[in-house]
Amino acid sequence: MTRFADAAGRLAGVAGWLLGWRPDEFWGATPAELAAVLRAARGEEAVEAGVDGAELGRLMGVMPD
């Protein structure tokens, strides 16, 4: 059985080596954030283009503040 401390230590090492995270960055991240960054690092998530100019104008019109 793997203890939490052992697993966390391994993940902290991976985050430091692969992502360049310092310990405070690792411990400040949520498990979901770490998983998302690792998926992106492995190329498992496609990057979307974002909002185009027309959509941005529409959003600014409905939310003017």
UniProtKB/TrEMBL annotation:
InterPro entries with a match to the protein in the record: Phage_TAC_6
Superkingdom field: Bacteria
Pfam family of the protein (one): Phage_TAC_6
Name this polypeptide is given: Phage tail assembly chaperone
